[in-house]
Write a structure and sequence with these properties.
Distance between the termini: 12 Å
CATH superfamily: D-tyrosyl-tRNA(Tyr) deacylase
CATH topology: D-tyrosyl-trna(Tyr) Deacylase, Chain: A
Strand content: 35-45%
CATH class: Alpha Beta
Number of strands: 8
Largest sheet: 6 strands, mixed
Shape: globular
Radius of gyration: 15 Å
Length: 149
Amino acid sequence: MRLVVQRVTEANCKVDNSITGSINTGYMVLVGIGVNDDERIVEKMAEKLSKLRIFSDENDKINLSIHDVGGKILSISQFTLYADCAKGNRPSFTNALGGEKANELYQHFNECLRKLDLKVEEGIFGADMKISLVNDGPVTIILDSEDLW
């Protein structure tokens, strides 16, 4: 599982010119589900994200979690995080989990975050989404389950 976490002051997702999710302070998270991912990995990644400390404290040190600042999450499914460009110029996505199983794990991830007392807005799985955000800092962190355990 791969997450691209951007600390934002605002972010939203539009599908067919309608807003499906919108937040102010928090994280805009691109969520990639790989072929080897399962519920256990998804749960661990949700916990890791909830404890991540990338907000500035009163001394301007990156030291606070999303809980500490009362932030929200805009979660966007993003299979292209598993693009493999090693051969040729056209990416391969064979390492990305597709279809219903990917959607189930994506939804499970969002529910895990909610169970960790986070407010989560979403895009629409598989839709053509237009994402707008203001990256704060900018701060962008990449979490990959293969690097964490």
